[in-house]
Design goal:
346 residues; 16 helices; 9 strands; TIM Barrel; binds coproporphyrinogen III; disordered N terminus; seven-stranded parallel β-sheet; alpha/beta
Length: 346
């Protein structure tokens, strides 16, 4: 039974027919799982990322506990700025904090394009261990932050609703912004290549803050760099672009060579399909907060989502990361509804 499910996600990304829709959840390895909280009590965040045995255990937890069709590497998008020479802290209940952000030309003296095989060797070690422990049960998704989203943190120095300091940096010092974006892009190409060589079956680029830009600025500050990455990676492994809020550019993203596009809940599946065209796999788009609704509502709304997307060229997922206050039962209800859904007799 399990082996038949092995490659559902990879099949969907290739555009092949599947006997059912594959499902995983963004941020599925995380704080809504009591088993994760237990590990979290003993080790710091980056300690968990940097210890392959811990990263492997956390990565596999949702596969065992929830029954998702793919594992996603436990790590963070901010390990890349860290490897480039910036200090990154994760402050409990506040989120990321970078005490010395990039704001002026002189700040570039502190950052560099790292040798990812040295600086991020703990990631490739974790991937090898995960692949070994997964024993081909489900595929492993590698990932990186998209250059624009990483610039947001590297310049702003913390999370933000508007990332206004990061945007001001782009609009006041565009040459520096492009220099930084190119450094991140070059690092990310090497990093994702290393992840794939270590065993990642597919990779996702998270552009969580893509939606903060106008369509024109998204093209300039984000899509250009995403395109470079996809161009270099696409023949090594299928690539998924998730640019939250950037629905206006789905058509352009569909032309990059990506195998899949993640979409959030603010666009209907029908519109997303219209913009992205029929040939690409779509992934999404359940409102993560709706997992807080009573289970019968979750089941009803999940079925509605499945009917709207249809069975082909589709990976079921949330429209953004799972929230920490979602109970395991509710996450399971979402996943089981997808696994049990019969497209012929709904
Ligand atoms: O998907 C997975 O389960 C794999 C692991 C993963 C983490 N972060 C673990 C994590 C992934 C894919 C990420 C990506 C990530 N990290 C993004 C892009 C996706 C998104 O949600 O938009 C972003 C913007 C970050 C940066 C980041 N890391 C923030 C803003 C925070 C704090 C707030 C939050 O969402 O938790 C983190 C910390 C973080 N990364 C945690 C986890 C499990 C929580 C910290 C903890 O448990 O102590």
């Amino acid at each position: 039974m399990e082996t038949a499910n092995n490659h559902l996600l990879l099949k969907a990304l290739k555009g092949e027919e599947t006997n059912r829709v594959p499902v995983w959840m963004m941020r599925q390895a995380g704080r809504y799982l009591p088993e994760y909280i237990k590990i979290r009590e003993k080790y710091g965040f980056f300690e968990r990322c940097q210890t392959p045995e811990l990263a492997a255990e956390i990565t596999i937890q949702p596969v065992d506990i929830i029954g998702v069709d793919a594992a996603i590497l436990f790590s963070d998008i901010l390990v890349v700025p860290q490897a480039m020479g910036l200090e990154v802290q994760l402050i409990e209940s506040k989120g990321p904090y970078l005490p010395n952000p990039i704001r002026i030309e002189k700040d570039f003296n502190r950052i560099y394009i790292p040798n990812v095989h040295e600086k991020l060797s703990y990631v490739t070690a974790a991937i090898k261990l995960i692949k070994n422990n997964l024993n081909n049960r489900v595929p492993l998704i590698g990932f990186a932050g998209a250059p624009w989203t990483l610039l947001c943190y590297m310049v702003q120095g913390s999370g933000s609703k508007t990332f206004d300091t990061a945007k001001a940096f782009c609009y006041q010092q565009p040459e520096l912004a492009h220099r930084l974006l190119q450094m991140i892009t070059d690092t990310t190409i090497e990093y994702l290549t290393a992840q794939i060589e270590a065993g990642a079956d597919t990779v996702q680029l998270f552009d969580s803050w893509g939606g903060l830009l106008s369509k024109a600025d998204f093209e300039i500050y984000s899509l250009r760099y995403i395109s470079q990455i996809v161009e270099k990676i696409k023949d090594k492994a299928p690539t998924i672009i998730f640019a939250k809020g950037a629905w206006h550019s789905l058509q352009e993203m569909s032309k990059t060579g990506a195998a899949g596009l993640g979409i959030d809940w603010c666009i209907t599946p029908e519109k997303a399909r219209e913009f992205a065209g029929t040939n690409i796999c779509l992934q999404g788009n359940f409102d993560p907060a709706k997992l807080l609704a009573p289970i019968p509502i979750i089941e009803r709304e999940t079925k509605a989502m499945l009917r709207s997307f249809g069975k082909k060229n589709y990976i079921a997922n949330l429209g953004h990361g799972i929230l920490p206050n979602v109970s395991v039962d509710h996450a399971k209800a979402f996943v089981n509804t997808i696994k049990e859904f019969d497209f012929k007799n709904y």
